[in-house]
Amino acid sequence: MKNYSSNDELKNLAQNLGFTIYLFDDPQTVGPEIKLREKSKDCELDAIMLYQNLVFLVSINSGHSSNLEAEVKTFFDKLDGIKEINDTKFEINITKKKKKQLENKEKFANEQLEKINAHIKATSADYNIIIKKLFFAPNKEIDEEFVRRERNDGKIVIDKDCYQYFSEVLNRLNKQILFNDFMHFLEIKKSDLEKKGTSRTGKPGKSGSYKVDRIELKKDKIIMYSFSPRVEDLSNYATVLRLSQKYDKKGFQRIIRPKRLENIDTYLENNETFPNNIIIFLNPAIYKNEKDFYGNGELTLLDEFNSLIIIDGQHRFFSFVKGNKLNRFILVTLVFLRENNESENYSQMEKMFYKINKTQERIDPNISFILQARIGPDSEENFWYQVFKKLDKPGHGFFSERFSFKERAIKINDNKRSIISVIKYGGITKLNKEIKKKKLIIEGLNTLYSGQNRDNNIEFAFILIKNYFDIIEKVLYNQKVNKESLTPREIGALFKLFRHFIVTNKEMVKRLGSNHDITKSKDQTDIETVSYFEGLLTKIPFQEVIALNYSASNWAAIEAYMLKKINSSDQSFGNRLLLSKKGKGVYDSLEINTTGN
Fold this sequence. Notes:
By secondary structure, the chain is an alpha/beta fold.
C-alpha cells in the first residue's frame, strides 16, 4: 500500500509557512480516485500550494521509488511548457471504481478547483503570478548535483536532506525564520511579491535609518558601519548561509545549536545584552551601490528577505529571537563589499568567517575542511573533497552512500558517518606529497600522476582508493567480518598503511590506479596486482583489530598493529620509521616473532 505520510509532511510544512495547500490523491481526504491533471500534457498533480501571488504545482513522492531521479525529471519535463499561469489548464480526472462515492468526490474536487482558480483570478488582477514547480520527496535523499541542476526555471526539489533542514529551523527557531529561509531557498524577493503597476521598481523598499560610524577597512573595497540597533530592527532581514546540503550552495555555517541558544537565553534573563559585536555582511545581491543606502552619517536598511548575512554571532543574535527579547539593543558591525563581482564577494565572506572562527579555535572540522576546499580551488582539501564526492556515489564500492560531508547537527535517523574523521585520522590531505622521516624520503602520489591535469589526477586517485578498498572488502568477506564494523579509526589506519605500500612497491600502487574495476579484470597483470595487495592485507586479522582497546582517535596504534602483523611474515613490507612516536611504541611492545624493519 502506498505510504501517504508524505502528504501530511507537506501539509505541515505548507501550514507552518503560511501557505494554503490543496491536496489530491489522498485517501484520508478525497480518496485515491481523484487526480488533478494539467490538461495539455496529461501530467498528474498531487497538490497545489498558494501564497499571495506564488503558485506551486506539486508532485509528492513517498520515497520508495527505485529511480526517483527519473521521476523528478519526468514530472518537470511534463510541466516544461508552463511559463505563466495562462499556460496551465486544470482538470479533475476521477477513476470510476466506486460509483456510490463518485458524486461526492467529484463535487469536493470541483469545489477545491474553483477555490484555486478564484484565488489565481483575484490575485492576478493586482499581482504578477509566479509559478514554481515543486517535487516533494521528504523520505529519500536525491543526488546533490542533480537537485541543483533542476533548480533552474523554477524547478524545486525538496528531498530528505532539505526537508530535515526546514524541520530543524522550525524546531530550533520559529515560523518567521523558517519563512525567510524558505524564501531564500526559492530565491524569492519581497519585490517579487509586490503589486504590479507603473510605480513598481523591482528594488527593495527602505526600512529604518540609523546613525553609524563608517570605517574603510580596505580602501574602496571593504567598508564597515558600527551601530547599536534593536534586535527587532534586523530580525526580519537577518539570515545565515547554512552549510546544509541542498539548502544553499553558498552556505558556510552550521545550523544553530539548541542547547547553546538555551544557555545564552538563560544568561540574558539577568543581563541586558552582550558587550561584543555581531558581525553582519550586507548581502551583495541586494546592497550594490553605497549611495543607495548611506549618506551624511546615516545608513538606511533595505526591506528585503535575507538582506543581512550573519558571519559571526548567530547564536547570540538568535537567542534574542528565540527568547522573544526583540526590544534589546545589540552591538553590530555591518560590512559592505564594494567589489562588483558577486561570487568574489561571497568568497570574501567565507574567508572572513573562516579566519574569525579559526582564530577563535571554534570552527567545526567538517566546516573547516569544506571551506578550505571551496576557498582554495587548488588546495589539497579541494582535491580530496572531489575524490570522496565521487566515492560516495552509488555503485562505487566501500564508501558508496555510507559516508558523507553532511552537517552532523541535523542528521536524523541517518546511519551515514562523517568522512571528515576518516580524512583526519588517515592523514589523507598529505597523501599526494612526499614526506621526510629522518633520512627516509617517501614519495607521494604526485609522482604517479600523469602531468598537470587536475581532473585526470583526481580520477586516478578515485580509482586507486576505490580499488584499494574493494580489495579490503574482499579480505573482510573472507575473514567473515562485516565492513560496517570498521570504524573511522580502522579506515584511517588503512590509509596510513598506504604509505607503506608506496615505499615497498610503487609500481604495484601505480597499477592499482590504472583500471576502474581491477578486482573484476581478467587481465593477468591486473590479477597479479590484486593478488599482491590481497596477500598482504590478508595478514591483518581484522576481527582482532576492531576489538583492540585503543581510543577511537588512536589511528597511530592501529597502523602500528597492522604493520606488525604483516611484518610477522613479511619483513620487507613498509618501514617502521614511517610510524609516529606513539606508533613505534606500540609496534615495539607487540609480542610477535619478528624484528620489524
